[in-house]
Automatic annotation (TrEMBL):
It comes from Auritidibacter ignavus. The keyword Transmembrane helix applies. The chain crosses the membrane at residues 30-48, 54-77, 140-160, 169-186, 206-227, 239-263, 283-307, 327-345, 357-377, 398-418, 445-466. One of its GO terms (molecular function) is transmembrane transporter activity. This is Cytosine permease.
Length: 498
């Protein structure tokens, strides 16, 4: 067995067969470690802020979490079939150059997620130091920002194998300490107050569910295949989906539920969570438990950011940037550091602009996901590897059906969402132009984020129906090329443009 390198140099190329040694169960570790952060409890407060009851919030949270990570599992199937990063495999649906359009959206989304997680880690550190009387203010935040950024960049530059080992340790450590935290805060739950919350409307309920889907699984869907590309081609599709979904959804279901109970017991938590999610939750603990909680929160947030910056580096390479993978991760790390410092020191309310940014990018990302999932479910055989890198190959340079579907679905989706943080992010008030028949931007449907679901479903249905003949023709041509390659074993591949 060959020794795995300390720093992964593999970029967006197809993973060699002898390196595909992972098991489907290995997918549990990165997804669990990245999503066990107590930050997930903050969603309990945010979901209730939609004006719905505990039981409504509980049901839509479970549905939103499980369904969104199930969609990630479907994308992960492509990683096993093609042994390449998500955005490279997306070329089969969009074309080698056409993929750069959703690829740019994906890169921006990953940058947003990793920066948000780094910001949360910095604010949590500042809050804990202040609580313990160890000092606070600008100095602590600067040190925390630099330290957090350095750890994230170092792990991301090291690459896949180092990250998987790190996530294995974090899975156990953060899991045990989080259980202790939950035991400590459960006595503070006022079940009578929780159950007295009045129910909300259907539109409010749908809005809460879409926010949960966007904040959890849909926020990771653009990198799902990155972590399954080391799986052997013989691995079961069902096992890939199962372990991906279980790893991603298990912790958030518990954390969001506890968050709902705590927020329903103490409405003051809702305001505190909006300003400093992890720091506010720290205040619920006895002094002796604050440091273990802080370490766990810090490591879990860093874990999620590591996944994001690693994958954003791969996405950057898929856009045509010709640099080594570690350098790509370093560039994204620099952007993360600058973004973290800007938000922590110059933005009074980081949650508002972030959620506004997230919902806006969530629409085209959902449209892209619908197209790629339809493409994955349509295909019966593995990808033709050379064509993923050759614009004259089977997948072409630009797939007009996918690109037009992507643009139209995004336009329709943006017309059915609004900027719910108009005061914090006035630059993003252009959406919601199709809401007139549904009551306008002030109507009940305005806050439902309906456009995200519409973009996902519409793009899936159109692609599934319109591109099926194209996919079948690609697979037939791939079989012919494979037969030619078998007949000329050891010789160059046949001309793909023939």
């Amino acid at each position: 067995m060959s020794t795995k390198p300390l720093v992964e140099t593999t970029g967006i190329e197809v993973i060699a067969p002898e390196q595909r040694t992972a098991k489907p169960a290995d997918l549990f570790k990165p997804w669990f470690a990245a999503n066990i952060s107590v930050f997930g409890m903050s969603y309990g407060a945010w979901v209730l802020d939609f004006g719905i009851s505990f039981w409504q919030a509980f049901v839509v949270s479970i549905i939103g979490i499980v369904v969104s990570f199930l969609l990630c599992g479907l994308i992960a199937i492509a990683g096993k079939r093609g042994s390449a990063p998500t955005m490279v495999l997306s070329r089969a649906a969009f074309g080698v150059h056409g993929q750069k359009v959703p690829g740019l959206i994906s890169w921006l989304t990953s940058i947003g997620w990793e920066t948000f997680l780094a910001i949360s880690a910095v604010l949590a550190t500042s809050a804990v130091f202040s609580t313990m009387g160890w000092g606070d203010g600008t100095g602590i935040q600067v040190i925390a920002a630099l330290f957090v950024s350095a750890v994230i960049v170092a792990a991301s530059v090291a690459g896949y194998h180092t990250i998987m080992k790190l996530q294995g340790f974090l899975t156990w450590f953060t899991g045990v300490v989080t259980i202790v935290y939950l035991i400590l805060v459960i006595p503070q739950i006022d079940f009578a107050a929780v159950l007295s919350t009045p129910p909300g409307s259907l539109q409010q309920t749908i809005g809460a569910m879409v926010m949960v889907m966007t904040g959890f699984g849909l926020g990771w869907i653009n990198i799902a295949a990155d972590w399954s590309r080391y799986q052997p081609r013989s691995a079961s599709d069902a096992a890939i989906v199962f372990w991906n979904t279980l790893g991603g959804a298990a912790a958030p279901i518990i954390l969001v539920t506890i968050g709902l109970l705590l927020a329903g017991s103490d409405p003051v938590l809702v305001d505190g969570v909006a300003e400093d999610p992890v720091g506010t939750l720290t205040l619920l603990l006895p002094t002796w438990a604050i440091i273990p909680f802080w370490l766990t929160a810090l490591l879990a947030l860093v874990s999620g950011a590591v996944l994001g910056i690693y994958s954003s580096g791969l996405t950057l390479l898929s856009l045509g940037i010709r640099i080594p993978r570690p350098a790509a991760a370093g560039i994204d790390g620099l952007i993360l550091t600058v973004g973290t410092i800007w938000v922590v020191f110059f933005a009074e309310d980081f949650l508002g602009p972030f959620q506004s940014f997230l919902i806006t990018l969530g629409v085209p990302l959902a449209a892209w996901a619908g197209i790629l999932i339809a493409d994955i479910l349509t295909r019966r055989v593995d990808y033709h590897e050379p064509s993923l890198f050759n614009p004259r190959g089977l997948y072409g340079s630009w797939d007009l059906i996918s690109l037009v579907t992507f643009v139209i679905s995004s336009i329709i989706g943006w017309g059915l969402v609004i900027n719910q943080f108009a005061a914090e992010a006035p630059w993003n008030n252009w959406q919601g132009y199709f809401l007139g028949p549904l009551g306008g931007k002030d109507g009940d449907w305005a806050y439902s984020n309906l456009g995200v679901i519409v973009a996902l479903v519409l793009s899936f249905v159109v692609t599934f129906l319109a591109r099926r003949p194209i996919v079948r023709a690609q697979e037939a041509r791939a079989r012919t090329l494979q037969q030619q390659a078998d007949q000329h074993d050891g010789e160059p591949h046949p001309d793909l443009s023939a």
